[in-house]
Amino acid sequence: MEIRKCRTGILLFMVVYFFIAVFNTIPPKTSRVIPKPKQQTLPFLTSQESITPLFNTKHFMVSAFMDQRRKAHDIRIIGIFKRNSIRPLHCFFYCGQFFNKTTSASVLQHLAHFKYPYGPADVLCRMPENCSATHVTLLTQPSPVNVSDHIWLPIRNKKNPYEEKLNFTVCISTLYGDYNNVLQFAQTLEVYKLLGVNRVVIYNTSCGPELDRLLKSYSEEGFVEIVQWPIKKYLNPSSGWKVRVHKGDLQYFGQVVTLNECVYRSMERSRYVVLSDIDEIPMPYQHNNLNSLMASLHRKHRKVAVFILESHVFPKIYFDPSERFRLPQWSNVSGINILEHIYREDPDRKKFLHFKMIVQPKRVEQTSVHDVLRKFGGSLRVPWKLCRFIHIHVPRRTSLKLEELKVDKRLWDFQEKLIPNVDKALQRAGLLTES
Ligand SMILES: *[C@@H]1O[C@H](CO)[C@@H](O)[C@H](O)[C@H]1NC(C)=O
Ligand SMILES: *[C@@H]1O[C@H](CO)[C@@H](O)[C@H](O)[C@H]1NC(C)=O
Ligand SMILES: *[C@@H]1O[C@H](CO)[C@@H](O)[C@H](O)[C@H]1NC(C)=O
Ligand SMILES: *[C@@H]1O[C@H](CO)[C@@H](O)[C@H](O)[C@H]1NC(C)=O
Ligand SMILES: *[C@@H]1O[C@H](CO)[C@@H](O)[C@H](O)[C@H]1NC(C)=O
Ligand SMILES: *[C@@H]1O[C@H](CO)[C@@H](O)[C@H](O)[C@H]1NC(C)=O
């Protein structure tokens, strides 16, 4: 009797288990039926964050990418390395099983370290023959002592014919502090959309409460891709780029690392990448959008990898006197209203000019903030009358008086669509009371 009860129990358990298993695998009606690869459990830990300490070293791994543009290697791991403690490393691969031999890695430091103790570095490895690797990690000795000590990175940028191709991605490096410039953020993102931008990648260390809501709403919609960037957990990042003035371990929250990560993240999916800040807008002055601008530039300059543009400051201390766009519905939204800033500084071309870039990611190997240091192809200075960055900022040429600034109302050409789109975005995020 006891045995039979027990058997019935087991049988019941199996039936219930069977149903749970079956119903768990039935896709909900609304989802498209796409055959999914079987979820296998991997025999190691994969990194759950964008910054991963490298076992037995002072370095960090960020992301691993397939990169076969040079003969000497197939894999590029972007990292943050302690510059004075670089030792030989070995690449260890997983291709359905652990590959039984490591390959030696070469470490290519970036020049754009701004003399901080930590800097961006690329680790280059050759994938072993007959190993189609899905994951990689780095070792300090030629073979692993204990596999479970290592955290693995998935290898990204494997060619995916199904992935939708984007025309323009904007990379915004690190957001930090309690930055809460909601109105400018929403307006800028909506101008980007009108210019033909398909994706904005933002590296988030921290931000203010309303901006957090706005970004979450844009990220649900798919326009914004947030990469969490918890750099403060591991290092003491500086808040600038002059090592004597802005103390710390790493330049400007790891700006150069994030820009490079973004270029590689976008390489297989986006034709162009704009390397920018959120207070900057790449603005064509003779075309309606970035697509037609870049098509015309590309026709004349086929081998150009990097398009260099001047960034002109529109001082945020001067306002349009007509107050035409000081709209009542925005009065309670925190941040700058970009439509109110119509005065432009002409840069002093005898001194350092501030440049920003639009690049073809497939032709970029290593980038810095204002120039690309290693690339496949040339670079072109785009005439400022054709396209320039609108940079709403504190005055740069502080000696200039208001009368010496140029009136530039290019942003107003977008107002008809821009204003309702900004209102909708703020409403979606619950930051505007509906009228
Ligand atoms: C690694 O695997 C290959 C093929 O399975 C084998 O021929 C080779 O001897 C192995 N090498 C080591 C060091 O175990
Ligand atoms: C790779 O696979 C091919 C075909 O299976 C085999 O002929 C070759 O010896 C393998 N190479 C190595 C290094 O194991
Ligand atoms: C390997 O590492 C795991 C986790 O750190 C530990 O539990 C285990 O004892 C280690 N094994 C050996 C052989 O060192
Ligand atoms: C990219 O640009 C082309 C040409 O202007 C356009 O046909 C296509 O729809 C655009 N793709 C996206 C994702 O916006
Ligand atoms: C940005 O990072 C902070 C700190 O981790 C987090 O509280 C916030 O929710 C993040 N915001 C977004 C939009 O991911
Ligand atoms: C702005 O906030 C104030 C105080 O909370 C409120 O009285 C006013 O109606 C709000 N204005 C708008 C346009 O939402």
Automatic annotation (TrEMBL):
Q: What is its EC number?
A: 2.4.1.-
Q: Where are the transmembrane segments?
A: 9-26
> Which InterPro entries does the record match to this protein?
Glyco_transf_92
What are the subcellular locations of this protein?
Membrane
Q: Which residues form a coiled coil?
A: none
What keywords does the record list, in alphabetical order? Glycosyltransferase, Membrane, Transferase, Transmembrane, Transmembrane helix
One Gene Ontology term of the molecular function aspect: glycosyltransferase activity
The record's family statement is: Belongs to the glycosyltransferase 92 family.
The name of this protein is: Glycosyltransferase family 92 protein
Specify the species. Oryzias melastigma
